[in-house]
Design a protein that fits this description.
By secondary structure, this protein is mainly α. It contains 12 helices and no strands. The protein has helices spanning 12-28, 33-43, 45-56, 59-67, 73-76, 87-97, 114-125, 127-134, 140-154, 157-169, 172-192, 209-215.
């Protein structure tokens, strides 16, 4: 599938300006997914280039680059019909319980090539699949923990900036919970699991959730301590 071509070519000073403005805006209003996305694109080119090379060196990664699957309703809607124990059903439950749509992600605008635009798109669209695999909620702690995993997997500067911004917004109890339990777990989980950008998730939707977790070295999120 062709990625949307509404991309905007930027000079270096323009990239810096967009990155700065997006960073400030995202800190002021962390619900602005468009600003977070722009920050990730304008600061993430070297990281996306490394991910692209890893995908080219992996069989499943090459298949993803060749076929360019999209995590959109048209292609993943069958997950809602799969048996309860499957990875696909768990993803459908995660999305449905939150009234999320696979089609809600903003398009990539600031990548220079079609290949990098697809890698950035793929990274954006598998976010909720990672939520499902790691069993992370979508609250501030859950999102911050997943950003740590994403950083360990892709080294995107935006991920670490998001974690810093998240910890600033934590209350004292949340900050203690995150630093003592979720942060150490997320670092270990992100380093121990397989290269998640090289997984063709759609081919594994019908497999048992716990089996794919074991196969990919996924450590589920810790339970809240009593």
């Amino acid at each position: 599938m062709i990625i949307e071509r509404a991309r905007v070519p930027l000079r270096r000073w323009q990239q810096a300006a967009v990155a700065m403005g997006s960073a400030i805006g995202a800190l002021v209003d962390p619900r602005r997914a468009d600003l977070i996305a722009a920050l990730g694109e304008t600061t993430g080119k070297p990281a996306f280039e490394m991910v692209l090379e890893r995908m080219k060196n992996c069989e499943e990664g090459r298949a993803i680059l060749l076929e360019r699957p999209r995590v959109v309703s048209e292609q993943v809607g069958h997950a809602w019909d799969l048996p309860d124990n499957t990875f696909g059903a768990a993803y459908a439950k995660f999305m449905g319980s939150r009234n999320f749509s696979p089609d809600d992600r903003p398009p990539v605008r600031f990548m220079e090539t079609d290949e990098l635009a697809y890698v950035a798109t793929r990274a954006r669209e598998v976010h909720d699949l990672w939520h499902t695999l790691f069993g992370l909620p979508t609250n501030l702690i859950g999102e911050s923990a997943l950003k740590v995993i994403e950083f360990e997997q892709m080294y995107l500067p935006m991920c670490m900036l998001s974690v810093i911004g998240g910890t600033v917004r934590f209350n004292e109890k949340q900050r203690s919970l995150f630093l003592k339990h979720y942060l150490p777990w997320a670092v270990r989980a992100g380093r121990q699991c397989t290269d998640l950008m090289c997984v063709y998730y759609e081919r594994h939707f019908s497999e048992d959730l716990e089996q794919v977790r074991r196969k990919w070295g996924i450590i589920p999120a810790p339970q809240h301590p009593k």
